[in-house]
Amino acid sequence: MERLQKVIAHAGVASRRKAEELITQGRVTVNGKAIKELGTKVGPNDKIEVDGVPLEREEPVYFMLYKPRGVISAAKDDKDRKTVVDFFPHVEERIYPIGRLDYDTSGLILLTNDGEFANLLTHPKYEIDKVYVAKIKGIPPREKIRQLQRGIMLEDGKTSPARAKVLSIDKGKQTAIVELSIHEGKNRQVRRMFEAIGHPVLKLKRERYANLDLRGLNAGEARELTAHEVKQLYTKAQTGK
């Protein structure tokens, strides 16, 4: 037996919090009876409907993709551009990306049909580290790197302190490779942080997400997460460890 809101979230209908709202609003029925109690538990044979639509229960699945540049981080695109979901034609479950990577940014992105899991990893209060490697224009002096580490004031607020270090420089081309670790998810945050210190990004890649990295994957390749990796992510989000 599982809590009703968890079953709804696992089905990909909504996040767990939104599922709780649906229940309290009387929009969920179990075996034809409207349910408004959040503690309600259901079994595998119970018939659940949300707004009159039968719930199609799916086993939760979890994937990581090495997203290439030029791909949309969405389940579908109204301009018919390639999306991250297009790399999973063999997956029958209704998966969607957790968070997003910009169209021109490559790297590690997670996909799932587990709404509770997705909400946990993207909620602002859960500090999940994301590590990026950026090729930037110009060679930043030490003080500019310290600015990144202290936090940058952007139009939508100041960023949290970050970890940043210069990996290499090319004096001839006047470019640098910088690793930046953040745990926020503001729109285009990494690019805007580098723009704010006067060193715009030429190329950007997300190398790591919490305990996961891209080892063994080429651009456009994906793999399913192990049960241990999923448990680690849950633990990391809930405890910060």
UniProtKB/TrEMBL annotation:
CDD domains attached to this UniProt entry: PseudoU_synth_RsuA_like (cd02870), S4 (cd00165)
Enzyme Commission number(s): 5.4.99.-
Keyword vocabulary terms for this entry: Isomerase, RNA-binding
InterPro entries on file: PsdUridine_s_RsuA/RluB/E/F_cat, PsdUridine_synth_cat_dom_sf, PsdUridine_synth_RsuA/RluA, PsdUridine_synth_RsuA/RluB/E/F, PsdUridine_synth_RsuA/RluB_CS, RsuA_PseudoU_synthase, S4_RNA-bd, S4_RNA-bd_sf
Database matches in Pfam families: PseudoU_synth_2 (PF00849), S4 (PF01479)
GO-annotated biological processes: enzyme-directed rRNA pseudouridine synthesis
GO molecular function ontology, one term from the record: rRNA pseudouridine synthase activity
Entry-linked SMART domains: S4 (SM00363)
GO cellular-component term (any): cytosol
Residue span, RNA-binding S4 domain: 2-63
Annotated family: Belongs to the pseudouridine synthase RsuA family.
The protein's name: Pseudouridine synthase
Taxonomic source organism: Priestia flexa
